[in-house]
Specification:
single chain; 165 residues; alpha+beta; Alpha-D-Glucose-1,6-Bisphosphate, Chain A, domain 4; 4 helices; 7 strands; 32% helix
């Protein structure tokens, strides 16, 4: 089974400004540190003109329910890979994969950055899958709740970051 998290983030900034941030490796350092991660690193980034890719590593705190504490611990190391490409109609498309050390779930996602008259909207879809019998649903629910909180924190950070550009 798969659990999905879907959010829509509106920005009062032109799409060029937002994609400029999203394709800047330093932005990822600021963003992840700004939402409480530690030991944040950009492991690799590449911009060949058509595709921007970035691989990051960070340690993030986990507010783990008692039933999952022994399995997951209090912190996890996250490796995240993203690729941005320009789509049709002035949109930008992102595919991402998130691997969390010790968390037995597969997390993938996509973002679509869409221009609007007042700025742009980032449509985010994250899918979480855990195939462990008996506890898979609990792990998916935990990761989904944690993902929603992180996406909210990222949205607040990004708005403030863009306002300062």
């Amino acid at each position: 089974m798969t659990t999905s998290v879907e959010v829509s983030h509106e920005y009062a900034h032109p799409i060029e400004t937002v994609i400029g941030a999203f394709t800047d490796p330093d932005f990822y350092l600021h963003k992840f540190e700004g939402i409480g991660a530690r030991d944040v690193e950009v492991l690799a980034s590449d911009d060949d003109g058509d595709v921007f890719s970035v691989e990051t590593r960070r340690d993030v705190p986990l507010e783990v329910p008692a039933a999952l504490k022994k399995l997951l611990g209090s912190w996890t190391t996250v490796i995240q890979n993203e690729e941005w490409v320009e789509g049709e109609d002035d949109e930008y498309l992102n595919e991402l994969q998130i691997n969390s050390e010790g968390v037995p779930a597969v997390v993938t996602g996509s973002m679509t950055l869409i221009p609007t008259d007042d700025g742009c909207i980032n449509e985010v879809v994250i899918e979480i899958t855990c195939n462990i019998p008996l506890i898979g649903r609990k792990v998916e629910a935990f990761v989904a709740d944690n993902t929603e909180e992180l996406l909210d924190a990222e949205y607040e950070f990004i708005q403030a970051y863009l306002d300062e550009l």
